[in-house]
Amino acid sequence: MEETNSEGQLTSDDVTDEEFIVRWVGPSGEEEGPLYVLWQLIESYRIDIFDISIHRITEDFLGFIDRARSLRMELASSFALMASRLVYYKSRALLPDPGFEEPENESRLPPELIEQLLEYRRFQLAAEAFREMEDLTAFMLTRPPVTEAAPAPAEEQILDVVDLVEAYLKLMRRIEKANEPEAFMEIVGEEMAVEDRMARIRELLAGADGFDFFDLFENLAVSRMLIVVTVLAILELARLRELVVVQNETFSEIRIFRRSAVVS
Question: From start to end of 21-68, where are the E strands?
Answer without folding.
Answer: 23-24
